[in-house]
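Field: sequence (string)
Field: structure_tokens (string)

Example rows 1 and 2, in order.
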Amino acid sequence: MVKRGSTKDWNRQKWQKSALVDFQKMVRMTAADSEGYCVCCTCGVRRHYKTMDAGHFISRKHNATAFDSMNCHPQCKKCNLYLDGNQIAYYQYMEQSHGRTMINRLIQQSKTPRIYTIDELREMRAEFRRMWKRAQETKNL
């Protein structure tokens, strides 16, 4: 019998969803200042990392860029959810922060089909958890 909440019977989709949750938490946590606040990459509002989203420049439905930290930044819920990512402002942010070369790299990368194995997703999830816990300890949050 499998314990409730056990990951033993998870399929690949559940592992991917869980890895994405930890990846997005890591993105927000590492971008936070020592008080736990981040700035929305598209509108500039400052909020606590727990109330922010981690918005993807290129939709996370493209597996090849879903876990790329250059493709994901803190974003307020208004921009990410209600303004559908606020794409014009996000493009301007990406161009100013990372340059057109990075934008082009992400676009090319997103066109490559990518299916992660359960083992890859487990390893990524564990690494993202280590990274956000390390950031949390460093910032005393």
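Row 2 begins here:
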Amino acid sequence: MIKAPYEDRIEFWKFQHASITFVAANQLCEQIINQKIITGHPLFTSLMTALHILYGRPFKQRAAVRLSEDVVPEEYKDTHEVLKSMRDQIYAHMDVDGMKTIENNYSINKIRVSIKDGDVQFGMTMAFPREAQIEKIRDLTNTLSEKTRYHADKIWRRHFKSSYVPDNDYEVNLSKENDAFLNPLRF
């Protein structure tokens, strides 16, 4: 079996995990755009939550596998920062004193109570990206997926360039005790 230093295996895991996650976020953006899922659609809030959680996942890992923000291209830095803030203060966690709207410094995370003819309805005030912003998020996740996949592929080729790996299902070995790059899965 192919052997590799722990540092290479953990770097491969980090970049491959990020690439797979950014592909999922990108596909979600494509579906939101193509199916015209907008505010009011029954899945809109759930899809926005999933999008923000997926996007932030590679940047919110333990230090050894956390993706550096240096991979974010300069033209997307603002979008990246907004996505992270919204993930942390609205979607993954609901901070009572969290994000404020730009126009009037009003807190987004409010519980709204509507009463009409004695009927009470409850809701939350949240912020959502508009279609143009979702298109930019789609482009950003595509760019990040390609960049992280490139780095993962470099590590893979370095270790498997001229090696035969038998057909099977494997997992990347993250053990410090064993230097095999892959461990066969046993079901």
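free_text_note (row 2): The first helix runs from residue 6 to 34.
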